[in-house]
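Table 4 source record.
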Amino acid sequence: MTAARRQRKRFAALCGLALAALAPALGGAATPQPIVVNAQTGLALSGFDPVAYFTEAKAALGRPDMELSREGVVWRFLNEGNRAAFQDNPEVYTPRFGGYDPVAIARGASVPGHPQIWSLVAERVYLFYSNEARAAFVADPGRYIDAAERKWPAVLRTIGR
């Protein structure tokens, strides 16, 4: 097994799943959305600030004193402004597909993405399980997003089983 594969397997083993209800962008009833959560810490994004991808253009660890709990998921932030932005618009800042890798989803699998391997496309954050998956996605994001959107309902049924 390659070192990269061992690293992905260790990361996947550390990840658990929490169901979070996130309000749809246009309002209305909340819909359950699986969120990748670190099973050891209970943190979404392993403690990285979801708003920092937008404001800092990088993956940045949030502070323990800047936490927000939503639907059983604990999120961390760099500052009060980021926490308030997330609280007001979680659907904007929550990684698409709950933090699962869209390249894997396009293949019909649920693989947790790593919060330090990411890309912003059309004002959404996507997380990836490897640099190779990110590179493939960045080369043709529309193709992977379309395929992942089609496969996501079926993949959702397999998460947590």
